[in-house]
Specification:
Elements: E1 12-14, H1 17-29, E2 33-39, H2 45-55, E3 60-66, H3 86-95, E4 100-102, H4 106-109, H5 128-131, H6 135-150, E5 154-158, H7 162-174, E6 180-184, H8 204-222, H9 228-240, E7 245-254, E8 264-274, E9 277-287
Parallel strand pairs: 1-4, 2-3, 2-5, 3-4, 5-6
Antiparallel strand pairs: 7-8, 8-9
Helix pairs in contact: 6-7, 8-9
The structure holds adenosine-5'-triphosphate, pantoate (PAF) and beta-alanine.
Pantoate binds at residues 38-40, 69, 72, 139, 142-143, 161, 164.
Amino acid sequence: MTTPKFARGTLHTFQPPEQVSQVTRALHGVGRKVALVPTMGALHAGHRELIRRAKRLPNTVVATSIFVNPLQFGEGEDFEAYPRPLDKDLEVLKEDGVELGFLPKASDLYPEGATVTVHPGALGDELEGAVRPGHFAGVLTVVAKLFNIVRPDYAFFGEKDYQQLVLIKKMVRDLNFDTRVIGVPTVRERDGLALSSRNVYLTPEQREDAIVLSAALTAGAFVGRDGAEAVLATARQTLAARPAVEVDYLELRGTDLGPAPVDGEARLLIAARVGSTRLIDNVPVVLGAAVDHPEHAPDAGE
Ligand SMILES: Nc1ncnc2c1ncn2[C@@H]1O[C@H](COP(=O)(O)OP(=O)(O)OP(=O)(O)O)[C@@H](O)[C@H]1O
Ligand SMILES: CC(C)(CO)[C@@H](O)C(=O)[O-]
Ligand code: BAL
């Protein structure tokens, strides 16, 4: 089979996995690197930030996959309703200088008889996994497949889906994938709401209510010096102002999503339903005396 044509500087889209593999193999053969930005489409400024960061890498072709992965949706979730504005997405990819678009069909990734999946371990059943059983097995399976098809040197994921990011990093380590996973801070609206493809489901009133997620996280993080109880109590107090917002969980964890330390870096995570729309968000928190250590200043290590 001949390698599909690939010229630098324009967007090429492929549906069959074998074609993408051929192109990325050929690119590696001439010394290029490949950076992958996996998405489910309905591209917004959050996705575009991942692409922007990937584009900064020297000698690297940026590939973006668009695939609404059925395996990570449970019964009664929004798989059918999930927005799929493909033409608009392709315009975004062109505008942002993405050179490789991978648009597989479900039957390409899950041919009949495919039964083997990636098991996320215990963390896969906590937080999001407790509310969406099987979700992370679906995510890790499709990400493993994308990595095996594209063989990316780098892969970019948003911190908005923090547990997903932690689990993907863990999968790469535990299963020896040869890909460097890079997490990108959450892009927000001016009022703090984390950008999400699901924000389009919100009515104007719900959109107002939804601000409380980031407001509660920010308020909680602000009192990190006073310890975990204060962080959670402050966040809960902020949430109480919007009783229409139903919280699935509000938890303070370590940065690896193990138990939070008394002093040091942690993560405050929330999932809540606003009407029938389920939103998630999280922020970094510095706890206790660690607040006074310069290495924990907000932009340390940037
Ligand atoms: N606001 C954001 N800031 C940074 N990265 C983001 C943001 N929103 C999504 N991403 C990242 O983009 C990648 C693709 O996510 P996805 O296509 O599911 O979009 P999404 O907006 O998170 O959709 P949904 O909210 O429906 O899950 C993921 O790595 C995700 O973490
Ligand atoms: C990583 C991902 C593309 C896998 O389907 C999805 O979970 C997402 O968009 O965050
Ligand atoms: N951004 C995570 C994908 C999902 O909610 O299924």
